Known about the structure:
Blueprint: E1 5-9, E2 27-31, E3 39-43, E4 65-66, E5 70-82, E6 84-90, E7 105-106, E8 109-110, E9 114-115, E10 117-128, E11 131-132, E12 134-138, E13 146-147, E14 156-160, E15 173-186, E16 204-210
Antiparallel strand pairs: 1-2, 3-5, 4-15, 5-15, 6-16, 7-10, 8-9, 10-11, 10-15, 12-13, 12-14
Amino acid sequence: MKNPLLVLSAFWLATGCVSAQAASTIDLNVNGTITPSACEPSLSNGGVYELGKIAANDLNIDQPTALANHTLQLGLTCEAPTLVALQPSDNRSGSHFDSASTHKFGLGLVNGNEKVGSMMLNMQAIVADGTEMYPIGSVGSTAEWSPTSILSTNFRTSFTNNRSTPFLAPTPIQRLVADVLIAPRIAPANTLTLTREVPIDGSVTLELNYL
């Protein structure tokens, strides 16, 4: 939801440039938006993917080790058809080991600076109000949207029911279900101290934005 915007307009006088007709008033403007309906997000299994225990001997020495992919179901339920987008934030920011990609989420740090791994999040099998939907992304507040299947901290992800138009735009949704595919990888074993148990600790917040 858009935060209320407080705009303060002030009058400034440069030294030695005092005008004989200086303004004696100042404006304060308060702007914002009240959305007509609210939406409630949910994730299956409480949003938890439990990997269990992984033997250090099963990890690749000098290459990442891909773990089993897992799917959680995302649900969005709105009081009325509403334009929404998801804005992820990485609660373990800076801990993913693959610096070549800015679209991955970290799996935590151990021993101060050892990066445990990373994960990708992909949107699949999206259906809203009985219609197949397609994920689209937009950077910042721009109105330009592009096809994408991933969730990333670098852009917002919304949904459209028409991916053939050259002018992609979000479609209002009331009830949406989608699969969030989680693809985790553990960093090469030779970058980790594995003399004791190492916790895998990924955490992502999906914030719902009203458009």
